[in-house]
Every structure is written in structure tokens, then in C-alpha cells.
């Protein structure tokens, strides 16, 4: 597939995953359950989450289009599918099911998977691997927020 076609495909899948995850949150950030939680002092305002995820998914889609153009493998595809499931699943586990510890497990797995992409396929995508940095940084922040909530509630 051409890189542009791959980019469109990954944009559709990644932003579709964000939309599905948002729907599965069941108004999570606005619920009294979430509002009443003790949150980390470094928790960003709500608008930052939307801006961060938009940036992350744009960068991730470009990265994936380069990866699959240069190095299509069943392993990469399986890990991408796992990433989608974990990314969407965290919203459901944390906000819909109120499973703080379960959410932490999911986000740790997701973070590990994105770091796996970065280090495993670095040679295949060369400088494009740095497009994963916003995702990696954000997941470290999100993991710390989830952990703080687990410890303090």
C-alpha cells in the first residue's frame, strides 16, 4: 500500500479508537465518581487531554504509515491491534467500570507496548520513531495520574 493510503487508514483507525474510547467512558470525567477522587496535583485541565490525544494520534498515524510501508510484519500488526484494544479498553476499565487498579494494569501494558514499538522498530523507521515520543511521554504522565489515584483513594 502507498504511504498516503496507509496514513489515511491509520488516521481512521486511531481517531475511531479515540471516539470509541470516549463513548465507552460514559461521561467519566464529568461523573461524581471521578470528580470526588483525590487527583494528583499535576493533573492537567480537561482540554489538555483532547489536545494531547489529537497530537499523539496524528504523530502515531504518521509513524505507523512509515512502519508498515517499510516493515510490514504480522508481529507489528498484532502489536498495533493490541495497542488499539488497550487504548480503548483503559477508558472502559477506568471510567466505566471504576476499576482504578485494573486501569493501572491496562495503562502499564499500553505504555510497555508503545516503548516496545519505539525500541523494536527504530531501525525500520529511522527518525520517524521520534514521532512516538509524545505518546510515550503522555503515557508516563497518565500512568502517574492513575497510580496517584490508586494510592490516594
From TrEMBL:
Question: What are the TM regions of this chain, as residue ranges?
Answer: 45-64, 76-94, 100-119, 131-151
In its keyword annotation, does this UniProt entry include Secreted? no
Lineage, opening ranks: Bacteria, Pseudomonadati, Bacteroidota, Flavobacteriia, Flavobacteriales
Q: What is the scientific name of the source organism?
A: Asprobacillus argus
The record's principal subcellular location, in a coarse class, is membrane
The record's section on Gene3D superfamilies has: TspO/MBR protein
Q: How does it sit in the membrane?
A: Multi-pass membrane protein
Localization in the cell:
Membrane
Which Pfam families does the record associate with it? Answer: TspO_MBR (PF03073)
Q: Which InterPro entries match?
A: TspO/MBR-related_sf, TspO_MBR
Family statement: Belongs to the TspO/BZRP family.
Arranged from A to Z, the UniProt key words for this protein are: Membrane, Transmembrane, Transmembrane helix
List the protein's name. TspO/MBR family protein
Amino acid at each position: 500500500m502507498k504511504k498516503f493510503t496507509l496514513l489515511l487508514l491509520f488516521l481512521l483507525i486511531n481517531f475511531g479508537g479515540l471516539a470509541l474510547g470516549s463513548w465507552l467512558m460514559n461521561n467519566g470525567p464529568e461523573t461524581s465518581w471521578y470528580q470526588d477522587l483525590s487527583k494528583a496535583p499535576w493533573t492537567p485541565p480537561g482540554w489538555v487531554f483532547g489536545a494531547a490525544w489529537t497530537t499523539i494520534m496524528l504523530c502515531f498515524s504518521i509513524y505507523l504509515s512509515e512502519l508498515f510501508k517499510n516493515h510490514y510484519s504480522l508481529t507489528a500488526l498484532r502489536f498495533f491491534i493490541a495497542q488499539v484494544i488497550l487504548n480503548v479498553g483503559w477508558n472502559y476499565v477506568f471510567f466505566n467500570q471504576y476499576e482504578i487498579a485494573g486501569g493501572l494494569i491496562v495503562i502499564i501494558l499500553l505504555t510497555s507496548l508503545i516503548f516496545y514499538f519505539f525500541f523494536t522498530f527504530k531501525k525500520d523507521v529511522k527518525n520517524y520513531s521520534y514521532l512516538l515520543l509524545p505518546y510515550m511521554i503522555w503515557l508516563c504522565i497518565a500512568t502517574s495520574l492513575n497510580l496517584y489515584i490508586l494510592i490516594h483513594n
